[in-house]
Amino acid sequence: MSWHLALNTAISFVSNTNWQSYAGESTLSYFSQMVGLAVQNFLSAATGIAVLFALMRGFSRQSTDELGNVWRDLTRITLFVLLPLFLVSQGVIQNVNPYLTLTTLEGAQQTLPMGPVASQEAIKMLGTNGGGFFNANSAQPFENPTALTNFVQMLAIFLIPAALCFTFGETVRNRAQGRTLLWAMTLMFVVAAVLVMMAEVKGNLNLTLLGADSAMNWEGEESRFGILNSSLFAVITTAASCGAVNAMHDSFTALGGMIPLWLMQLGEVVFGGVGSGLYDMLMNVLLAVFIAGLMIGRTPEYLGKKIGVPEMKMAAIYILITPSLVLLGTALAMMTDAGRAGIFNPGPHGFSEVLYALSSAANNNGSAFAGLSANTPFWNLLLGAAMLIGRFAPFIPLLAIAGSLAARKIQPASPGTLPTHGALFVALIIGTVLLIGALMFIPALALGPVIEHLQLLAR
Q: 70: part of which helix (H) or strand (E)?
């Protein structure tokens, strides 16, 4: 690896992003894959959960400055939660054999890569890491051989993020709060999945204009599992901060590709990464109760804790960090020759590729639109900086809020307290998430996938 690619890759796996500007099977040794990458898959996932527990203790504890012990949390999370689920029985390979050179039926020579894939594949999904052993990721039969493994991988991505909603309810001793967050995430996820499926089933207008049969968009889809499964996988991997793919998002229709892009830009609060998804959502909850407090003329509070000026300042800083990285990084790439040199597709689709790359890096997702040549010093350093800042800078305001809340007493609910569970609050959370996402990113989306779709309609 070049120094800038090695730096980018190290930041990528330490930050739980798993952005890959290289082909794993032709670039890295087995030692690098197991010791350099798989270990970080465990530790980076455990870090997100540990930070979430610090925030949850801030809500549940009172009159204390204790938020727990990070080393104890990391050890427990790694040993009791993240030990891998092995997929060998379904055909995912797990060996350290040399690559096989075989002769095809036509007489040509073909090399089949081997490797310790199953152990990395399990934590890749369970820890919402996403970095594949192979360049084709979960579209490679050695990583994802059957319909059953495809289902298990999708389930594993959401398993811990969904379970943490129940954990939150148990921690704050109010199960209804956890169910409320789960309902908000689930409703947004279902709508997003339906929209992508509709866009892909409707077909590709580019092919229609060329006179081809395009009843459905099969370009870039995983033909073994079908369009609906490819669409569902795309929504799951971008709703969570996983980034694993079994289809090429760059080949989706303009609107089909916009939904996964926007799911990342919303902060991946729709289940999101292990730990990171729920603490992202809780920041939006604090904004929601603040907005509701302004509407009814009462001091905002959540779980008996008054939400004051210091918490709202920290929440505002938290909310602005990632969008700033995405939009400023995209602007920098489009303004410079080095940034534009990596764009292979002209027009709005090329802009979408740049916007997707920065959204993926800053939100620690790791998936990518193809068509962007990112293995250059400019792109490796830009995306590396976005991954590093996007992962660790939000911890500062987040932990500041946790410490501030932990020091406060829990106040009993009064008749004027806003109920933070039930259908009304679910709608308030969803409205807050969508409003923030719209204000931040709709102008940028209008320059990419929206224009691309309107151009096709105008032909």
A: helix 70-80
Selection from 108, 113, 110, 119 nearest residue 86 by Cα: 119
Residue 139 DSSP label: G
Phi (first) and psi of residue 397, to 5 degrees: -65, -30
Q: Which of 24, 140, 143, 154 is nearest to 87 (CA)?
A: 143
Pairing of β 301-302 and β 100-103: unpaired
**pLDDT averaged per 10 residues, the chain (length 459):** 91 88 84 87 88 87 86 87 68 87 89 86 84 85 88 90 92 91 95 92 74 72 87 92 88 89 90 89 92 81 87 93 95 94 88 93 88 90 94 93 89 78 91 90 91 81
Helices then strands, each counted (H, E), the chain = 19, 4
**Residue with token string 């059957």:** 146
What whole-number distance in Å separates Cα of residue 229 and Cα of residue 223? 10
Give the Cα separation of 319 and 51 in Å (integer): 16
Tell me the pTM.
Answer: 0.88
